[in-house]
Design brief:
- This protein is mostly beta strands.
- It is built from two helices and eight strands.
- Strands 1, 2, 3, 4, 5, 6, 7 and 8 form an eight-stranded mixed beta sheet that branches.
- The longest helix is centred in the middle third of the chain and has 13 residues.
């Protein structure tokens, strides 16, 4: 769909960062995107997906966590909803609005990957900016992490 000025309308997506504490250090779960996904194959990302019509970003986030990571609502605790990030990827001629979320993992034994990821890996948050990621992943993470700096905003 195009806007009156001919630009493509932005596609809304969610990015879920799942956090755990390991040996006193925060870590976030990243998924390496498989060759079977439509965009950004091989890049590291949070648990993510398109926001379906008529669905809120938070509801979509819970759906993606279930489908891509095997995590139900009882397996995670929502820590923070970040401000959306809008940008245009000129290489794809695609505009995006990313809705970032931060969850605490409560039941790691339920974590499993599906076809959209070749692997999951835990990283300390500062490492995210050093990885080959989907566009603006470090920025999306900065919108929700660390959670204590975002209270009252």
């Amino acid at each position: 769909m195009s806007t009156p000025d001919g630009q493509n309308e932005a596609t809304a997506v969610v990015t879920c960062f799942v956090m755990r504490v390991d040996h006193g250090h925060d870590e976030v779960l990243l998924a390496q995107r498989s060759q079977r996904v439509r965009t950004y194959r091989g890049a590291w990302a949070g648990i993510s997906g398109y926001v379906e019509p008529g669905v809120t970003p938070l509801e979509q986030a819970y759906t993606e966590l279930q489908e891509e990571a095997g995590l139900g609502r009882e397996d995670v605790d929502l820590l923070l909803t970040g401000e959306p990030i809008a940008f245009r990827d000129e290489m794809l001629a695609q505009s995006w609005v990313v809705h970032p979320f931060l969850f605490r993992l409560l039941h790691p034994e339920h974590l499993r990957s599906d076809w959209e990821a070749t692997q999951f890996r835990w990283y300390e948050p500062p490492m995210v900016e050093t990885l080959a990621t989907v566009p603006r992943l470090a920025e999306a993470l900065a919108h929700v992490y660390p959670p204590e700096t975002h209270h009252g905003e």
